[in-house]
Structure formats: structure tokens, C-alpha cells
């Protein structure tokens, strides 16, 4: 039976509740400019506001080596009662120092890292704020490039596929400006054998090609529309239209929404999903579809038949 692996332990999918399916409470990288998400008090304030609007769960897609703040995720989850899912995985090459990448390229070290973080817990010394051996990741995060998959991407996705086959963990994918999703699907699903229903294809609102969206949906993957009203991605005008079109085509059960907050002030964050987008989507799609997008779909997409 599937379970959702949160930072406080495994829960039944039905217990997940209203979910922000792609966000960040903590995120840090030398490659990111401006203020970064590394303030536990600020993270707690945002999660509390989300909870106050009826939010019950949040999936943090921050991968290995990017300041996941594991101990603070645990504290925030306990303080608010919000289920929080942490991620293992690796982002684009630009976010990592060459020494770290050389170490992870030895043998099957990367796939082994992913499996360990999914099954045993975070590893001492690998992530500032981590709690060694105590907190297990509940998903894998990987990333494509702008209209392309480079060697780094293929290496990381191959390791992610191995980790999925060992654990059943879902894989969330950052698509740069929403591009290369068809190529990612061909690699992870077509070549590496990851079931499409274990793939959460992110940032599709940034590339509003209805034909591509239908192609991805027809394969059976989850389609994540995340980062609404971001300061540098004005995607709201077509986000709702894309969701309405996919629902009309029979793909309501594959739609996910997330705030994808990447820095303080970059967007209104998780509360916006509930106080602004949810009422509009209810008017456009009806209560049943909105319940699917916020509750039923994430509970299915984020579950896995964890070993042991």
C-alpha cells in the first residue's frame, strides 16, 4: 500500500489534505541572486499563514546541497501541523561546486545517495541544518535545461530512475521556463522505465503550449502548474486557461498546483493558492475539480510503495 513520506514520518495518502504540491520553505545557492530562503522565522510565518487558510500539506522540492533546512522543516511542521515532504535529488550543475560533483560521479554514488536519503534519512554533513539519520526524503527532485537535456541532466535523471526503481519514490522535475518536458518524459519514462504516474512535470505554466500539455497528459504524467504571480514570471493570464483546457480534455486527475517560492518577495507564496486561485478555479471548474487539484491528486502523486 502506498504511503506519503513526510519529515515527521509516513502517513496514509488520505491524511495529506489540501496540498501545495511544489514549494520551498528553504532554498539557497551561490547561483541565485538576491535574498534567499534561509530564515526559519520567515518560513514559519509563511507556513502558518498557509495553514490559516486551510492548507494542510506542502511538498518542498529543494534537493540535496541547496540548504534544505531539514531540522527547521521538522520544527515548522510540528509547530503548524502542516505535513511537509522533503526532497532528495540534484539540481542543475551551476548550483554545485566541482568537488561535490566529482565525488558524486564516482561509481553509483549519486543513486546511492538518493536511495539512502529516501530510506534511511539525511546524511550527516551533507546539508546545513540536517538531522543525520532522522529525516527521510519523500521524493526526488531533478532538473532539465532550457529546451535541452545536457550531460549533467542525463546523469542525474539516470540516478533518479535507479532510485525510483529501488524505492518507488515520485520524481519532480524542474523544467527551465517550462521547456524540454517532452524530452524529459522520453528519457525518464521511455528510456529509463519510470512509470509516467511517478513523474511530476513542473513549471508547465511557463510554457503554455496546449498541444504539449495534451501530449504530456496523454502519457499519464502529473502536470504541475507552479509559481503563480512570480515577480519575474507573469504566468497567471494563461495558468487558469491551461488548467481549464486540460480539465475539459479529461485530465483533471493529473493537475497539480504549487507556489514555488524561491526567494522572499518573489511572489505571494502558498497563501495565494488558497485565497486567490482556489476561488477562481472553483468558479471555472467547480468544487469537485478543485478538490482533485488541491487534495486528491497530490495524495496520489506524492505516494509511493516504500520498501520495508
Write up what this structure looks like.
It is a single chain. The strands form three sheets. The protein has a six-stranded parallel β-sheet with strand order 6-7-8-9-10-11. A three-stranded parallel β-sheet has the order 3-4-5. It is 40% helix and 14% strand. Helix 4 (109-119) crosses helix 5 (151-167). With 308 residues, it is of the alpha/beta class. The longest helix is centred in the middle third of the chain and has 17 residues, at 151-167. Residues 128-132 have low confidence and may be disordered. Strand 3, helix 1 and strand 4 form a beta-alpha-beta unit. The chain has one domain (4-301): Metal-dependent hydrolases (TIM Barrel, Alpha-Beta Barrel).
Q: What are the segments in which pLDDT stays under 50 over at least 5 consecutive residues?
A: 128-132
Q: Sheet bearing the most strands, described?
A: 6 strands, parallel
H and E string: EEEHEHEEHHEHEHEHEHEHH
Apparent shape: globular
CATH class division: Alpha Beta
Q: Count the helices. How many? A: 10
The CATH superfamily bears the name Metal-dependent hydrolases
- Placed side by side, the strands forming the largest sheet appear as 6-7-8-9-10-11
Cofactor: a divalent metal cation
Protein name: Phosphotriesterase-related protein
GO molecular function, one term: zinc ion binding
Pfam families: PTE (PF02126)
Amino acid at each position: 500500500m502506498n504511503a506519503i513520506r513526510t519529515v515527521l514520518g509516513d502517513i496514509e495518502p488520505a491524511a495529506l489534505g489540501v496540498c501545495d504540491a511544489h514549494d520551498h520553505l528553504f532554498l539557497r545557492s551561490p547561483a541565485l541572486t538576491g535574498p534567499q530562503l534561509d530564515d526559519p522565522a520567515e518560513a514559519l510565518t509563511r507556513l502558518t499563514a498557509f495553514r490559516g487558510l486551510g492548507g494542510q500539506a506542502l511538498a518542498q522540492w529543494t534537493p540535496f546541497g541547496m540548504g534544505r533546512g531539514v531540522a527547521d522543516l521538522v520544527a515548522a511542521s510540528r509547530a503548524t501541523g502542516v505535513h511537509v515532504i522533503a526532497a532528495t535529488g540534484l539540481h542543475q550543475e551551476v548550483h554545485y561546486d566541482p568537488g561535490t560533483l566529482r565525488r558524486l560521479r564516482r561509481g553509483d554514488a549519486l543513486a546511492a545517495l538518493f536511495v539512502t536519503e529516501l530510506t534511511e534519512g539525511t546524511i550527516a554533513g551533507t546539508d546545513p541544518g540536517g538531522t543525520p539519520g532522522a529525516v527521510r526524503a519523500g521524493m526526488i527532485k531533478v532538473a532539465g535545461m532550457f529546451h535541452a537535456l545536457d550531460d549533467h541532466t542525463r546523469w542525474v535523471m539516470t540516478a533518479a530512475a535507479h532510485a525510483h526503481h529501488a524505492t518507488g519514490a515520485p520524481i519532480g522535475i524542474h523544467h527551465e521556463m517550462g521547456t524540454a518536458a517532452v524530452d524529459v518524459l522520453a528519457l525518464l519514462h521511455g528510456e529509463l522505465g519510470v512509470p509516467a504516474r511517478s513523474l511530476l512535470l513542473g513549471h508547465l505554466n511557463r510554457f503554455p503550449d496546449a498541444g504539449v500539455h495534451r501530449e504530456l497528459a496523454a502519457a499519464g504524467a502529473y502536470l504541475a502548474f507552479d509559481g503563480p504571480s512570480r515577480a519575474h514570471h507573469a504566468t497567471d493570464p494563461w495558468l487558469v486557461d491551461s488548467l481549464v483546457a486540460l480539465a475539459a480534455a479529461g485530465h483533471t486527475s493529473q493537475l497539480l498546483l504549487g507556489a514555488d517560492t524561491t526567494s522572499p518577495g518573489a511572489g505571494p507564496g502558498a497563501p495565494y493558492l488558497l485565497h486567490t486561485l482556489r476561488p477562481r478555479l472553483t468558479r471555472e471548474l467547480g468544487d469537485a475539480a478543485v478538490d482533485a487539484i488541491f487534495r486528491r491528486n497530490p495524495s496520489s502523486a506524492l505516494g509511493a510503495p516504500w520498501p520495508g
